[in-house]
Amino acid sequence: MSNPAEKPEVVQLPAEPVSAPSASSRRAAAQRVREARDKLTSTSGTRPAFDAEMLRQYAQTRLSASYVVMLLVVATGVLFGLWMQPLPAAAWTGGMLCIHAAMIRSCRRFLTEPASPAATRAWRTRFVVLDLLYGLCWMAILIHPVLDMVTETLMMFLMLLVIAVSSMLAANLPIAALAATAPVAVAMALSFAVTGSLDNYILAALALAAEGYFVLLAHRLHSSTFATLEARAEKDALIGELEQAKAISDEARHRAESANVAKSRFLAQMSHELRTPLNAILGFSEVMKSEIFGAHAVAVYKEYSADIHNSGVHLLNLINEILDLSRIEAGRYELNEEAVSLVGIVADCHHLMKLRASSRGITIHEVFEQAMPRLWADERAIRQVVLNLLSNSIKFTPQGGEIWLKAGWTASGGQYLSVRDTGSGIPEDEIPVVLASFGQGSNSIKSAEQGAGLGLPIAKNLIDLHGGTFTLKSKLRIGTEVIVTFPPERVMSALAPLSDDSPPLQPEGSVMPDEKRRPRHKPIMSAGTGS
Q1: 3-class SS at 291?
Q2: Which of 34, 112, 138, 452 has the highest local Cβ count within 10 Å?
Q3: Angle at 142 (CA atoms; ends 140, 148), nearest 5 degrees
Q4: C-alpha to C-alpha distance for 256 and 259, rounded to whole angstroms
């Protein structure tokens, strides 16, 4: 029998990590898609909103220059009436004024109607047709056979004036500007070219060159206006995004404030609910541990009572720490400031923790500068900071280790406190973790004496309330040092004694004349002397 075919081994290649697009790239892609869609639905290759705005500016420009165009038409009709029969000149003037009136009426109607893509295309076509009629009327008068007696220079000047005015008025609609000026320029160029003279050929070339120049100028003006509209649209979009982001941030802030208030209320309620039974547990366990009402029948019960009491004390301290941290984060922690001695507080905390350190075989060294002035600070807060730092050092320092407590002057004139130990240390990447609320490093998790992770955050926040700095330096398997500094503004330097004599209680000029004549060795009043 033939062996069955072996199944090929399929090796799965490691998938390449797909990086998520950033917010800026997503915004740029969305903008490109929107621009492409707008160009497909637009009649001019731009955004539909820009088409309507361009037509609006075109209509406003036409309305603002309506009297200038009327004056130009009437002056041209009167001037040509002197060279031809008055009736044809009047008919041409009337036709031009009718076209101009129709254009003005169309512009006003367009400005009053709501904008829509279909209406924009219709109005665009209507304006182009009106400008084309406007240009054809100017062409008819400029190439009239009766005007052969008029010099070519005057005709060239009039043509340039018509082209310049039409190009400037229709710059926001380039196709309309071309429709209004191209018939005039082409007709004048042909009129000059048919004569066959060199001068007229030059004038024909100049007419075509002037048409190209003014068309290019109108295109540049249109591009500048379009760039301005784009910048304004981007600004409006950015303002909209900022307002949306502000609304979102305000809503998030309100939610955070509501959550913070709810957390504070919950902690206050729970602290009351927990402290009430805790006080009973601590009181009765202490009575049982001390055997106030007699010895236990079983000796183990005394150890159990001590364990219950120690656990209750630990829970009470944890509740107090959580409440302190919540008050600090909510900005409701009030400092009870007074003149305190930093060295004295550190020495008291050392005395409190000395027994605990001695039981672990840890030696604590004191390095204090003498004659240091007092600090203007909260004694309870500083004592809590020192106890938290010292208890952490004792907790993570192995047996036989050493701890140094230092207090002295800073270079700027403030005072500092330093707690350095020879413990296991903290990795650099875990320093932000241990400074965060409820944060614990890897060494703390492995340690038998785990805490809640609130000692360092509370100490740091209390120092921040005093305007000081909290610096944590640590090296793995070498030790940790925490340096706390207080600003010079909190140092209460001793005042120098007054060198001048104190002023008299009563000025010399206010002494009565009788008192001046009284001898100075006699008392003012003789009380109980009988004289």
Answers
A1: coil
A2: 138
A3: 115
A4: 5
Beta pairing class for 402-409 and 363-368: parallel
Cβ 43 vs Cβ 124: under 8 Å: yes
Q: Cβ neighbours of residue 448 under 8 Å, at least 6 residues apart?
A: none
> Residue for token digits 């009167």?
78
Strands of the sheet containing 415-421, edge to edge, are 363-368, 402-409, 415-421, 479-486, 469-475
Q: Are 269 and 326 in contact (CB under 8 A)?
A: no
Domains and CATH numbers, the chain: 27-246 (no CATH), 338-490 (3.30.565.10)
The Cα 220–Cα 216 span in angstroms is 6
Identify whether the C-beta of residue 416 lies closer than 8 Å to the C-beta of residue 486. yes
Sign of CA dihedral 499, 505, 510, 514: negative
- Residue 377, classed as helix, strand or coil, is strand
| CA distances to 45, 270, 321, 454 from 267, in Å | 63, 5, 11, 15
3-state SS class at 148: helix
d(CA 95, CA 436): 84
CA 216 centroid distance within chain: 44
* pTM for this model (two decimals): 0.47
Comparing C-alpha atoms, which of 494, 482, 490 is closest to residue 346? 482
**What does the pLDDT look like over 21-35, one tens digit per residue?**
555 665 666 666 555
Specify the pLDDT at position 500: 55
Work out the pLDDT band at 490, boundaries 50, 70, 90: very high
Q: What integer pLDDT is reported at residue 451 of this predicted model?
A: 62
**Any idea what DSSP says for residue 493?**
P
Confidence grade of residue 440 (pLDDT, cut at 50, 70, 90) = confident
> 200 — phi, psi (to 5°)?
-70, -35
Give how far Cα 485 sits from Cα of 218, 331, 406, 441, Å.
Answer: 69, 21, 12, 24
Of 333, 281, 328, the closest CA to residue 309 belongs to 281
Whose CA is closest to 418, among 464, 482, 364? Answer: 482
Residues with Cβ < 8 Å from 40, sequence gap 6 or more?
Answer: none
Give the distance, in angstroms, between the CA of residue 93 and the centroid of all CA atoms in the same chain.
63
Residue 469 to residue 236: CA distance in whole angstroms: 43
Q: How does pLDDT run across 391-417, given as a tens digit for each residue?
A: 989 988 999 999 999 999 999 999 999
Q: What is the DSSP string of 408-465?
A: EE-TTS-EEEEEEE-S----GGGHHHHHSTT---HHHHHSSS---S-HHHHHHHHHHH
